[in-house]
Amino acid sequence: MKVEKETIGQFTGILDAEGNKVFENDMLEFPFDLGQAYVVYDGIRFAVKSEGSEAIDYKPLEVLKQCKIIGNIHE
């Protein structure tokens, strides 16, 4: 199986609500119907970004730990 270099994401050091490792470009579902976003790295730290938006949102670590991985932007 060939892996495309641009699809590899860096591990954030965060585990989701189900204990799965969260990587850059993972799609997350927020609790309490707060929507979905994907993980980005801005060169300094990890954040989330909603599809179709240019805004980067710096959620507190505790919020990200309550999210659930639902996919990856490369899938």
Please tally the helical runs, counting DSSP H or I stretches of 4 or more residues.
1
The SS-based structural class is: mainly beta
Beta-strand percentage range: 35-45%
Q: Please bin the fraction of helical residues.
A: under 10%
How far is the first residue's CA from the last residue's CA?
Answer: 15 Å
N-to-C order of helices and strands: EEEEEHE
Going across the major beta sheet, what is the strand order? Answer: 5-4-3-6
The averaged pLDDT comes out at 88
Globular, elongated, flat, extended or rod-shaped: what is the shape?
globular
Number of strands: 6
Task: Please outline the helices and strands.
Layout: E1 11-15, E2 21-23, E3 26-29, E4 36-41, E5 46-49, H1 61-64, E6 68-72
Antiparallel strand pairs: 1-2, 3-4, 3-6, 4-5
Structural features:
mainly beta, 4-stranded antiparallel β-sheet, two-stranded antiparallel ribbon
3D structure, described in words:
The chain is mainly beta and 75 residues long. It has one helix at 61-64, and strands at 11-15, 21-23, 26-29, 36-41, 46-49, 68-72. It has a four-stranded antiparallel β-sheet, with no helix packed on it. A two-stranded antiparallel sheet has the order 1-2. Strand 1 and strand 2 (21-23) form a beta hairpin. The longest helix is centred in the last third of the chain and has 4 residues, at 61-64. The chain is globular. The mean pLDDT is 88.
